[in-house]
Prior knowledge:
This protein is an alpha+beta fold. About 45% of the residues lie in helices and about 15% in strands.
Amino acid sequence: MTAESLLQQAQFVCKKKGARFTKVREQVFLLLANRQGAVGAYDLLAELKELDAAAKPATIYRALDFLSKQGFVHKIESINAFIMCHHFGECDHPVQLLICDECGHVEEIQSNNFDLALRTMADANGFTISHQIVEAHGRCKNCNTV
């Protein structure tokens, strides 16, 4: 999916939800959509400053917070980075990320079996899951063949 088609889909989602998709939010969205893999907020800020010299850290963090709440991006807590979600039309889907410690590649996967197992264990402990991001670290297929 191209960055432009992702942007059009995001605009549609925002319009449907009544969420305000400002110019800055769109710019940050496109920076992420045109990028392969995860990126830190300050790297995004440096790229945004090329488009808007007045951009500050608060600008990028507010935009990332909005994009995350809309389900357009995922925050990878363990490496303090963000990655575009290419199937954000599926609201509140469970997120499972495979993170390569060698090259930094991040792959988003979805396993309904894993989600079911986790929810079953949570239910057994009287715990209600409201949001799920599972991060697994290791080596990707490319790094394993080197």
